Structures are given as structure tokens and as C-alpha cells.
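ok so for the tutorial part 2 we go from a plain amino acid sequence to predicted C-alpha cells. step 1 is just haveing the sequence, like this:
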Amino acid sequence: MQIKIQPMGATQTNCYIVTIEGKDFIIDPGTDATRWVLANVSNPVAILNTHGHFDHVWSNHELQEKLQIPLYCPQGDTFLLQKCPLGQSVPPSTPDYEIIGDKTILIQGIPIHYRHFAGHTPGCSIIEIQDVWFSGDFLFQQSIGRWDFPFSSGEQMVKSLEKAMKIEGDYTIYPGHGLSTTLKAEQRVIPYWIEQVKDTL
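step 2 — the prediction. this is what the C-alpha cells look like for a chain of 201 residues:
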């Protein structure tokens, strides 16, 4: 598996191109991502969203049109693709496939596993490919996603963090912002964040 990374826009949101067996998967194409994506794919097969915030989905529609490939998004966040609750005039997009909960899908023979971790948004998910998590805005290096946005939920964030604590094995984590980390490293600090979120409830 080959992973290309490019931070996009003012929020420096990581856009990823994951290449497996000659197939390119585009994860979270944010603000003005189209040019970089087009220059770095040779066989694009799908666009994958971790969640629906504007800085992760800005280039969805343009890439759908230019590449003629399907868009996958967690079902709980599809409404965010039509109107941004954070006041940004994001180009609206419509997913071809809505992912419900924890689900493994096959895209051209490649297994892609969505793990649902609500809290930052209703549909917030990580995308697991082999031993790698693309965690969107759920987990960062030594931090977690915000739970005070419109449609966020501190209660759901606590449940999701508790769920992440129970997952065995280790994964390399590529987050929506910042540097990579590992699940084992984050499991050492997740209890701290659970208490931080609970204190706001």
C-alpha cells in the first residue's frame, strides 16, 4: 500500500491518496484538492469521506464529475454535504453510497472497513484499510476531534472513545489534520480525553 498526503486549504486538512494493487482511493478531498489529486492518480476508483465537514469534502463534486467515480460517505453525515452548518459555502455533493455503522465494503476487490465513531459529527467514521486507520477528525496525535460544533455530541464522543479503547491490535493512524500516530499510543491518552469530554456534559 502506498499513501500520498497533502494538507489542503486554510485548515490544512490532510487529503490522502491510497494506492493498492494499482487502484487509487481518494480520502477526504478538501479545499482545492482537485488539482493535486488529478496530478497524483493514475487509476482512481473511489472517493471516501470520513465525515461531512466542509474541509474534508470540498472537492467531492468536482472530482466526481472529472473522474466519474463513486463517492462513499457515512449515512449520518450526508446532510452535511448539502449545506455546511459552519457557515462555509461548500460545493454540494451527493454520495453514490451511504455507509451505515460499522461496515466492510469491497471496491474492485479491495476491502475497505468503515468504523463508526460518532461525536464529532453524527456519522464520523474512520476508514480502515489493511493495518491503517484514516481517522478524519475522530483521533489525532495526542488529541481528539471537537465535540462542540453544530450536530456534534459529547455523549456520543464518550461512547466512541470507550469503543476505541476496546479495540485490540495496533494500527497506524493517519488523521485529518497533523501527523500520524498509532492506536496504541492514543489508547494511552484516550482515558484523559474521556474525562475532559465528560466534564463538559
